Amino acid sequence: MKALRLIQKAEVVVYDRLVSDEIMSMVNQDAELIYVGKKLDHHCVPQDQINQVLVDKAQENKHVVRLKGGDPFIFGRGGEELEKLALESIPYEVVPGITAAAGCTAYAGIPLTHRDHAQSVHFITGHLKKEGMDVDWNGLAKGNTTLVFYMGLKESPNIQAKLMNHGLSGATSVAIIERGTTPRQRVLTGTLDGLADLATQAISPSLIVVGSVTSLHKELNWFDN
């Protein structure tokens, strides 16, 4: 409700690709709308420029809302944007959101943790360095956990290979949640050894979920019913 009040009072709204039309329809009709949408391998506006837009508009003494899909502090680069505002001594507040990993899995009937399946959960960016040095693959492959890869479709062959090479069974259940929480949501299920092939059937935005909790989708899928 707080976010709704803020966008209804905003004078400037800087928004991303993943903000739905339904949400944008609630924005103050007199507000200046600035689109800075991003998708894999294509940045409509470079991050540094987004940061500067926020500063410039705030310094015009306007009520600025930076509107993002999901939670701004989970792979949303919200921290970088706030660092710039703090550097310029511009006051701000943060309204947290529901990150895609939580929202999409709930809509897919996939619990992130479950007493019989997973005692922990990891969120990993799919924008992986080619050498793989930025991810503790050995730790991720230990099992008894749920792995959620954001923006991982293009890297699915690498994700599959790294996890299996570090000991995670190819029979581990996986799911790809496409356009989660929207009316066009689709869930693809399979096993880790077929993840790369499964990903070719999906389109962005999608989440990759690895772990035995994904086997509960068939039983707990309420969305399609």
Automatic annotation (TrEMBL):
Any one GO MF term held by the record is: oxidoreductase activity
What is an example of a Pfam family matching this protein? TP_methylase
The protein's UniProt keywords, in alphabetical order, are: Cobalamin biosynthesis, Lyase, Methyltransferase, Multifunctional enzyme, Oxidoreductase, Porphyrin biosynthesis, S-adenosyl-L-methionine, Transferase
* Enzyme Commission identifier(s): 2.1.1.107
Cited InterPro entries: 4pyrrol_Mease (IPR000878), 4pyrrol_Methylase_sf (IPR035996), 4pyrrole_Mease_sub1 (IPR014777), 4pyrrole_Mease_sub2 (IPR014776), CobA/CysG_C (IPR006366), Siro_Cobalamin_biosynth (IPR050161), Uropor_MeTrfase_CS (IPR003043)
Query: Is S-adenosyl-L-methionine among the key words of this record?
Result: yes
Enzyme class comes to transferase
Residues in domain Tetrapyrrole methylase? 1-195
- Annotated GO biological process: cobalamin biosynthetic process; methylation; siroheme biosynthetic process
Q: Does the keyword Oxidoreductase apply?
A: yes
Pathway in which this enzyme or protein is active = Porphyrin-containing compound metabolism; siroheme biosynthesis; precorrin-2 from uroporphyrinogen III: step 1/1; Cofactor biosynthesis; adenosylcobalamin biosynthesis; precorrin-2 from uroporphyrinogen III: step 1/1
Similarity-based family: Belongs to the precorrin methyltransferase family.
Instruction: Please name the NCBIfam families in this protein's record.
Output: cobA_cysG_Cterm, PRK06136.1
Concerning PANTHER family, the annotation shows: SIROHEME SYNTHASE, SIROHEME SYNTHASE-RELATED
Name of the protein: uroporphyrinogen-III C-methyltransferase
The species is: Vibrio ishigakensis
